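Handout, section B. The chain below has 592 residues.
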Amino acid sequence: MILPLGYLDSVEIQVMISLLKIIDNPINDIALVTVLRSMIGGFTDNELIEIKLKDNSKSFYEAMCEYKNKEEADEELKNKIEVFLNKIENFRKEQEYMPLDEFIWKIYLDTGYYSYVSLMPNGILRVSNLKLLFEKAKQYEKTSFKGLYNFISFIDKLKLSSNDMSGAKLIGENEDVIRIMSIHKSKGLEFPVVFLCGTSKKFNMQDIYQSQVLLHQDLGIGPKYINYEEGETYTTPAREAIKIKLKMETIAEEMRVLYVALTRAKEKLIITGIDKDYKKSIDEKEKLLDSYKENTNKINKSLVQKYISYLDWLELVSLKRKKDLEEILDTKVYSKKEVLKSTSSKEEKRVQSIEEELADINEEELNTVKEKLEWKYPYNNLNNILTKSSVTKIKSMKLDLEEEYEAKYNTPEFLQEEKESKLSSAEKGTLMHLILQKLDVNVNYDKDKVQALIQGLEEKGRINGVQAKAVDIDKILKFTESRIWKEMQDAKEIQREKPFYLNVPAKEIYEENIDENILVQGVIDLYYITKDDELVLVDYKTDKVNTEAELIEKYKEQLKLYKEALEKALDKKACFVYIYSLYLGKVIEINI
């Protein structure tokens, strides 16, 4: 099944996220080239090729830096690179002290990208998407995870877990659509044609008549009197006075609401309502109007208060001002039988018309129509199969990150604020992953050095004070005593937090015979090549378990995919696959 593009896949959001990524870390070729080819960079494909061909072995950022310092290079292109790199450097300095949402809005204005997307096709929607990104950043700043780095990680993990944000939804006032809204929502708006429906519904007076105690801001409290000895309840003068006052105020408010409803239409107003016995209702109202003979066009207040629906009021006005309304009011009354007969007649005519058409069709044409109507999509079993998935979604695999997003980002803000001083297990797990990722293999760590690392991350805004206190330093030190760490210190190459994509046959994931592939994505915590040229794959786990067997059973299938992806990417067999359990403080080897 082909899924529609989400909010994060829209061009304007991809460009802006890519810009945020290179501000955080310019050594990101895909993000950098995305920005360079956009209006923010303004580079052509030929210019990018020329920059890269000068030194193909280095990253694009390094190639740009070298190109602008070469004497024989094109002077115009060098100036272009200089301007772009200075712009990025200024942004990098500003993001250190500015709140994320303010920083993003400043980027919109400084780059002119906000105005640019407004001129693109569907410009109004694209601008709304940029506004939504700004709002998302503002909301994110209120959580315990702050800063540009954490926000980018949050966006990346959303994409890896096949989740997405809801895009901006925008319908202008002049769009050619039918709008269904309450009368209150329509206040201040006008439309060519308006249907005012359900006018026979009675006003809500339930609280006034059934509440044991009535309250009024001016008259005070009006309770019922309860005689406990006889088990009887009686109303009181205070309650009756408040009841009359509340009823009058409710009717006055409903009059104002009806006025709003009647003044929304520019050209035509169609009012509908149901009356069980229309003739009887009209006769009754005519008699009452006759009994309140007055020389004014106004309807007596007592008569208005007798009725509690818009339809009754409208009928009173139509009878009182019959002559005045003849030219602008057209009243049509349909009985239930007429409505049912009309509907039935239309259906009969439609069926008869179809039968007449079918009668003229020969058997061969009839078989062709039948074949088309009974046709079934041959790949119906693919309707519920995603073309792209993450490791966390496959079978029964569940990672800490998935639990984190369920617990953290699907939690209401007011609950997040309460939890701010106490991190969840999933949040602690993510935090430990971050510290392990930042460890330097050239440093012999002790408690003071680990504490200094944590303090440095806090100063840079990567973590906050609550997170800094939550780091278990002893578990970090335990990892630096493991054989994995010792092998890393002598390793030829070390790579951490590496994303991967892998085509996996759908039949291996779903219990169906499907000859299709699924694109699986994930992130490898760590892999390295030892001094003996052996490829080692490592995955950190923070699960609270009693035995090694629990972790192996839970994550073996996941690591099998990691191993397959790594071997295909490097064209090299992985000699060892390890889980490092921070909870157990052990290296666990998995045979795959």
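Note. The chain has 25 helices and twelve strands. Compare this with the example in section A.
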